[in-house]
Write a structure and sequence with these properties.
The structure is a homodimer. Chain A is α+β, with helices and mostly antiparallel strands. Chain A contains ten helices and 13 strands. In chain A, the strands form three sheets. A seven-stranded mixed beta sheet of chain A has the order 8-10-7-11-9-12-13, with helices on both faces. Chain A has a four-stranded mixed beta sheet with strand order 3-6-4-5. In chain A, a hairpin with a 2-residue loop joins strand 12 and strand 13. The longest helix of chain A has 19 residues, at 71-89. The relative contact order of chain A is 0.15. At the A-B interface, helix 1, strand 2, strand 3, helix 2 and strand 4 of A face helix 1, strand 2, strand 3, helix 2 and strand 4 of B.
Chain lengths: 346, 346
């Protein structure tokens, strides 16, 4: 069998690579005046808007594994996790820049696939890929993506706006992504019999999260008073803890209200897992958690119906900042100041 | 001897680290509304200005070595190389976000030092450090910095503006940084006797480049017609090649006009090096190369005198895009379409 020639970085060289990337980045350029190819990208900012900026990095072997995720899918995810941060601020995305650390033998095909995934998502969310830096990284691949967006001047969301008495809401269902990661991390032989539909749903939720930009924008355009908002990346308790600390409040959750998908229920049953741990501590949900005054519940329910995004009431903001309480059938499940969830360095 | 306890990331945890960084990032916040601690940083953009964005990554073992560069110095350099990109556009810096890849045992002291260097430079250049992401990177340390700046709406510089007949200028002296890197890379025993002054100057030029923002801003504020501008990071011929390609022109350089520092002259003499290779191909000068019409030479010389920045005429823009020629005492030294310099992947 003749082996197909796979060009690597050493064949292409740095400038060859940049040219290649440039070709893939044409198209969407909302407000981009000068894109890849000069020292900086230049863009025109809107008047009467705030700019927001966020950066997120993904490291091979820590945040993903090429054995279980294609480069194209990774490209989509890299953008999605940054978009989720923008959604949490009530911001609309504008442009992205990318830094890539590439091992020498890294196949060019894989870079192409990465950009294919990235640009597809960029088009979908009208983000201009404004350039970046590619560097040699002898000891492993990584990607650091920076996203710039805009908010209205007087209408955007932060973590510090939760007030006692407000209702706590989450979008979608929780725990799916962490369960999906568990499936992906289980050696092929050792995974239990699982309906393909369940496997595909849960791993999909981990590999290809959908940022909740539509919900966030619907809230921006509404008159609903949003207290605090955050996107769930570290796990429900951990992220709710961030909101409580930033707002100087406590919170009470109702475990049985936390939204669970059917596949998550099925999977935890088959594998004898305590589902509550995955709901409260599982990371990378990329759902939105936010609070509103109780008086706005009706408005919100109308908005939810119109927007077609599932949003569920899961608890209440408390005045005492020392309390973060989970009730199960009316009785406290556990009470702790800061949540479980993932702490990436431990 | 009792060993001093050095906390590492595992002791601190991710959120401890973010808190630590936040404390170090207070102070300069030009237009920063919401800094580190929320999902995105929020800032207020000026009206009637363009935004520019650039990202640059530095990888341990590729772009620096902790044996020859302190973390504090690296922090300063990381900002400087990005500022140099902004200078090349005629932009003023506004804010920075940072992604850090950290091995588990990475000493916290070193992170502190990195931020010390970075924030000192941020204060100096009035950049707000707007946050970032810290991730675990099991296989080596890296830093990716993204810088956002602003230009006037109708006055900024690009690579594509060089026109036949224009004069080519460079700031400062060339080759110092590449020679400094050579000194740093030579094993201690094998380095020739060298006056400490020479060693310190050349290595300093490599480890701590000064971005030419003042010169760039002086040009922005002047009425001098700047054709093209680029910062020299890949080496004179390589970067001039970028300008020529982007502008569809050629260029002729006069070798004996290229500005050389006394230490570079001394060092290349002692080590029997062909200085021209270092002037034409040495990377990381972080000086500015730009072109102006010949009629503006007088104006430029007055500006140079006022600004106190050395700027030297080194050649002329030619109409033929196939020519990139270096003359030595009136005779062509070499002629090639694309320059030598560093190609980071070869």
């Amino acid at each position: 069998v003749r082996k197909k020639f796979q060009p690597t970085l050493s064949h292409l060289g740095e400038f060859g690579l940049i040219d290649r990337i440039r070709k893939r980045c044409r198209g969407v350029d909302a407000k981009l005046i000068e894109g890849i190819g000069d020292d900086c990208a230049v863009y025109s900012a809107s008047k009467n808007r705030n700019q927001v900026i966020t950066t997120d990095a993904l490291v091979e072997g820590v945040h993903f594994d090429f054995r279980t995720q294609s480069a194209e899918s990774l490209g989509r995810k890299a953008l999605a996790v940054n978009l989720s941060d923008l959604a949490a601020m009530g911001a609309e995305p504008r442009l992205a820049v990318l830094a890539l650390g590439l091992p020498s033998g890294f196949p060019v095909e894989r870079i192409d696939a990465l950009y294919r995934g990235l640009s597809a998502r960029c088009r979908q969310y009208r983000v201009a890929l404004a350039g970046g830096d590619t560097v040699r990284s002898p000891r492993g691949f990584w990607i650091a993506l920076t996203l710039v967006g805009e908010t209205r001047k007087n209408r955007w969301f932060r973590r510090s706006g939760a007030r006692p008495g407000q209702v706590i809401w989450v979008s979608g269902t929780l725990g799916d992504s962490a369960l999906g990661l568990r499936i992906l991390s289980t050696p092929a032989g050792k995974s239990p019999d699982l309906p393909e539909r369940v496997r595909r749903y849960l791993t999909g939720r981990h590999l290809e999260p959908e940022p909740r930009l539509a919900l966030s924008q619907a809230l921006v355009r509404s008159t609903i008073r949003v207290g605090a908002m955050i996107d769930l990346s570290d796990g429900l308790l951990q992220d709710l803890g961030h909101v409580c600390r930033a707002s100087g409040v406590g919170a009470r959750l109702q475990l049985e209200r936390i939204p669970v998908s059917q596949p998550a229920e099925k999977f935890s049953l088959v594998n004898n897992l305590r589902l509550q741990d995955w709901l409260l501590g599982g990371g990378e949900d990329y759902e939105l958690l936010f609070t509103t005054p109780r008086e706005d519940v009706k408005k919100l329910k109308r908005l939810i119906a119109r927007a077609g995004v599932p949003v569920t009431e899961i608890g209440t903001v408390l005045p005492d900042p020392k309390v973060l309480e989970v009730l199960h059938r009316g009785r406290p499940l556990r009470q702790r100041k800061s949540g479980g969830g993932f702490d990436h360095f431990r």
